[in-house]
Amino acid sequence: MKISVIGTGYVGLVTGTCLAETGNEVICVDIDEQKVQKMRDGEVPIYEPHLDVLFERNIKADRLKFTTSLKEGLEHGQIVFLALPTPEDDDGSADLSYVLGVAEEIGKIINTYKVIVDKSTVPVGTAEKVHTIIAKNARCEFDVVSNPEFLREGFSVDDFLKPERIIIGSSSEKATELMKKLYKPFVRSGNPIIIMDEKSAELTKYAANSFLATKITFMNEIANYCEKVGADVDQVRKGMGTDSRIGKRFLFPGIGYGGSCFPKDVKALHKSGKDENYEFKILKSVVEVNTSQKTVLIPKIKDYFKNDLSGKTFAIWGLAFKPETDDIREAPSLDVINGLLDMGVKIRAFDPEAMKNVARKYGDKIDYMNTMYEALESADALVICTEWSIFRTPDFDKIKKSLKTPVIFDGRNLYDILDMEKEEISYYSIGRKEVKF
Q1: CA pair distance 68, 391, nearest whole angstrom
Q2: Catalytic residue flag (residue 385)
Q3: Active-site residue, selected from the candidate residues 18, 28, 226, 261
Q4: pTM, to two decimals
């Protein structure tokens, strides 16, 4: 099949590459000429595990191409994916200007039947808006389908190739059959393609992300309460997770969620409710708790150093909002960095993938180290913000020798309390007892 993908961010590039992997002819469209040229040259513009292998293979096979011409992209594909940004607006709503702007141009260009697919995360009713805008100028038949993505950064290639389910929101039998044909190679193991109306499909994505964000936030509230009463959140988590009605996933406490999806989607659904005169009270609380959770380590740090932090140097391990990505959007590490800088702390940071993105934001306000252990040299403390696997089993002797004082503030609960006691390292985590030396 001939496919076009408009937008080459995380979702668009993974979508285009993975669809090419099953033999489709794919053209990806982006307005950034420099980015397009780099992709033509075989350079993957984002870090995503396993994407580079598929990317290179499909470019060589001439199944994956790139252009800055929307006209070329639309003339190529019978199915056209809109994988465009829907950033958070000032009032918390999703900014649809990119999606609707491209829809305006689509109507002026297409002259044969197309299936226009909303792949971006968009509010309820967007497919209807896109259809109306295209119809103003379209000289041919077309359909608009909602096909929300459920890709986890760091696992997006696997998630696309082996989806738990595929949601297709469509009121057109013709468009539905084409979409089912396109996705058939990805559901050979029997996972469902679920057909529903467009509005329900749009809401499904927001509902899923908001529920997961709520689950994380609830666990963070439990962790904070554990600290008040002397309970251990790890034991509580295990006790809860064995209940099949609850499940084990998304019960790990920490310094809050970040990224491009959860923060934006929760706020957008909350704002969409307000627009309909409905108050999502739970989501309002989720936003408030998550905002405060991002800086929950700061009081622990201030208390340990007796509010005397000026001139101190801290090592930070982990800058990305989660492991296996270079994405720092809404990353809790940024809130920690801001809090430390405000107190006069010097920062030596290390992250396997995200340092370039952080450097664009902070420049020389912080130092960027080549290794996790280099970041520790002559530092007064270690702060952990992202649970990269390489941080899970460190050389504690190196940590103790490098730090001026062996103290760790762990925002992801990577280490066992008993191990920290044996190592004689002062250790402050989330929802568990403090280890003091």
Answers
A1: 41
A2: no
A3: 261
A4: 0.93
